Amino acid sequence: MSTISDVAKLSGLSKTTVSRVINNHPYVSKEKKEQVLKAMEELGYTPNPSARRLRGQLTTTLGVIVPRIVNPFFSYLVNSIEQTAYHKGYQVLICQSNEDKEKELAFLNLLKTKQVDGIIMTAIENDWNIIQPFTDYGPIVLCNEYVNHADVPIIRLDQYKGTYIGVKHLIEKGHQKIAYCTGGLFDEQGKDKDRNYGYQKALKEAGIVINPKWIFVNQHTIEDGKQVMKQILEMDDRPTAVFTGSDEIAGGMMIEAKGHSLRVPDDIAIIGFDDQPLAEMLDPKLTTIRQPVDQMGEKSVEVIIEMLHNPEMKTETYEMSIELVVREST
Amino acid sequence: MSTISDVAKLSGLSKTTVSRVINNHPYVSKEKKEQVLKAMEELGYTPNPSARRLRGQLTTTLGVIVPRIVNPFFSYLVNSIEQTAYHKGYQVLICQSNEDKEKELAFLNLLKTKQVDGIIMTAIENDWNIIQPFTDYGPIVLCNEYVNHADVPIIRLDQYKGTYIGVKHLIEKGHQKIAYCTGGLFDEQGKDKDRNYGYQKALKEAGIVINPKWIFVNQHTIEDGKQVMKQILEMDDRPTAVFTGSDEIAGGMMIEAKGHSLRVPDDIAIIGFDDQPLAEMLDPKLTTIRQPVDQMGEKSVEVIIEMLHNPEMKTETYEMSIELVVREST
DNA sequence: TTGTAAGCGTTATCAA
DNA sequence: TTGATAACGCTTACAA
Q1: Least Cα separation, residue B200 to chain A (angstroms)
Q2: Residue A109 Cβ < 7 Å to strand D
Q3: Residue A137 in domain
Q4: Is the confidence at residue B94, as pLDDT, over 90?
Q5: By CA distance, what is A76's nearest residue in B?
Q6: Yes or no, beta carbons of A86 and B103 under 8 Å apart
Q7: Among positive and negative, which fits the CA dihedral B197, B198, B204, B210?
Q8: B302: which residues sit within 8 A by CB, 6+ positions away?
Q9: What positions does the domain HTH lacI-type occupy (chains A, B) (predicted)?
């Protein structure tokens, strides 16, 4: 690898001048600038990012923390972030937290050591008061995740609305017995509380009382979906519709339902969440809630880069709209 | 951020000694080692990777180049690579090439500038003679991709066998008219040539002549699958079975077939490739070729780390086995 | 067994 | 408008 000194030598100028050219500083004559550029070209010179980092420069690298990259929701989100970042001249370091607190902290440390300029968190494992101090070392943006009273930009979806319109759709289709699956708990606080609230609100407005037996917490995978359906099949009083927390759960439920000759949506209507490619491949095609993943990723990158350029920037919360995609499963 | 000097000061020892402790050098007395450790603890010290890199040390960062992270095959592969690497104390920089030659080169440059210790390539966009020179700067391992006569370790699947057993399975089921989809071309050389050969071999052994009309090249997505099925539907002489290049194509074909009341597998048998989660969710469940993605990822990381420790290591090709998963679509 | 000092490739400061 | 020099945090001869 050639260095700045090589370029200086070849162009007959000083390192300083070369550095100025690299960084587009003013006060370099056109003439010398061209000499430098030519030498750089000739040597195939690329600045060494480690040296720049060490020197305290920006690194044009962003970190993204995702829980699991194999979850399509996150892989699409990462894709959008990566593409946007690349166009803006940034690299992306993708970190998979695996829902592990320690691993999350390890990645946040990259900020401390200037490995990344900023971090986009798409999920949070540790308490905010543990994470908060890292904001001293660089911008942190929350994407698809939020914390009350956190003084960082938040790019999020209106999960409440998503659930509300989904459940309402079921009610309009004539359902009264509506089960509900969530990836979190059915608490007032904590993960997915907004979705829970959307479900409760929609039912309440329709004068429907919640049946606690039809609430399934901590559900995530296809397999979980199958299990939920099994439980439903054993009930004397079965729900006629289910609002699920993800297309995968919905898919799992559909498989199991079919295995027991239950017709969707006639015997049981099912609604997913995410609008993954899968949704269109299921039979019947899945009614689901579409989240504008690409937009979220794009916005997150824009915001974090803006913070980099303007650290005083006022932190805002950006809410993306969410929509119901009606297909055949409801 | 505290530095090595801070630790030295606090522990009353020299930077050198601290450095020795960090790097587990011998010749540090137990006593001093503990002093250092204590000081590090107290200051919450983390070595600055940029400084280490600059100094020419290993970076404990590996790069992985994938074409598209949203492709489940690659997201699972990346997942496996990331997990294995993390356990071995390495971070992973994930690079999405988007099948763009320039982007691939940009990432390979990370090796030149010591941003990553080594790179695992899961696809290759540029000609090998363009990539080859980068091996001077650090190990490159090919995973799921290969190049003849390349002097780098290769971790790959026996694609020939995968296709051969799949097509043979169709023949054993009584099919004679077997269509074939590939992501590449139907050339002797180039992408997917091994799969092509497997198809040809299986047919030849059964004394079946290939019908060129039933060869579909350059197929990748769900949408492609739909289009292929449309074309088949318009044929006077239709194939009774299709070997596809991916579960997605297979899925697309199934959707379209159903839309036209064609029964799978009775009217047309379909076989996928990859055994993605999707395969089990389709109706009928998809017969497909399973690739041991996790194993491949693991092996790639093991090999590349070994090369880092032992640069003289002889390069080998590792071939992973591949198997047929028979479900309901054949 | 420990410490001193040089150097990795940059950029910022200061002087010319 | 240009250049010499110090500094970023670390490791490694070399010396003690």
Answers
A1: 30
A2: no
A3: no
A4: no
A5: B70
A6: yes
A7: negative
A8: B84
A9: 2-56
pLDDT digits (tens, 9 = 90+) for A34-75: 989 999 998 888 888 889 988 877 778 899 999 999 988 899
A256 within a domain of the structure (yes/no): yes
Quick check: A149 pLDDT over 90?
Answer: no
Write down which residue in A45, A61, A80 finishes a domain.
A45
* B61 pLDDT higher than 90: no
- CATH number, domain containing residue B1: 1.10.260.40
The CATH number for B260's domain is 3.40.50.2300
Question: Is the CB of B50 less than 8 angstroms away from the CB of A115?
Answer: yes
| DSSP code for A98 | T
Query: β-pairing, B118-121 with A154-157?
Result: unpaired
Give me the sheet containing B178-181, strands edge to edge: B215-216, B178-181, B241-243, B269-271
Between CA B77 and CA B213 the distance in angstroms is 34
Structural domain total, chain A: 2
- Look up the pTM and report it: 0.83
Point out the residue nearest to C5 (C-alpha to C1'): B16
Within a domain: residue B152? no
Q: Where are the beta strands (DSSP E) in B67-125?
A: 91-96, 118-121
Q: Which residue has the tokens 């409440």?
A: A160
Nearest to B276 by CA among A80, A96, A281, A244: A281
* Helix (H) or strand (E) segment spanning residue A181: strand A178-181
Cβ <8 Å between B50 and A53: yes
Quote the pLDDT of residue A259.
84
Q: Kindly give the pairing relationship between strand B241-243 and strand B178-181.
A: parallel
Dist. CA A126–CA A104, nearest whole Å: 8
Question: How far apart are the C-alpha atoms of A303 and B160, rounded to whole Å?
Answer: 48
Indicate yes or no: strand C within 7 A of the C-beta of B241: no
Q: Do B112 and A51 touch (CB under 8 A)?
A: no
Looking at the partner chain, which of B46, B70, B222 has a beta carbon nearest the beta carbon of A79? B70
In a domain? residue A35: yes
Eight-class DSSP state of A202 = H
Task: Say if residues A144 and A78 touch (Cβ distance below 8 Å).
Answer: no
Residues constituting chain B: 330
CA A208 to chain B, closest CA, distance in angstroms equals 33
Angle at A62 between CA A110 and CA B96, to 5 degrees: 115
* Token pair recorded at residue B278: 């999707």
Give me the CA B231–C1' D10 separation in Å, rounded.
64
Contact at CB, A281 and B277, closer than 8 angstroms: no
**What is the identity of the amino acid at B155?**
I
By CB atoms closer than 10 A (0-12, 13-18, 19+), residue A223 is middle
Most confident range (mean pLDDT) of A186-200, B117-131, B185-199 is B117-131
Evaluate the omega torsion of the peptide bond into residue B47 and state whether it is cis, within 30 degrees of 0. no
Mutate to test the interface with B, among A4, A45, A50, A77 (most CBs of B within 10 A): A50
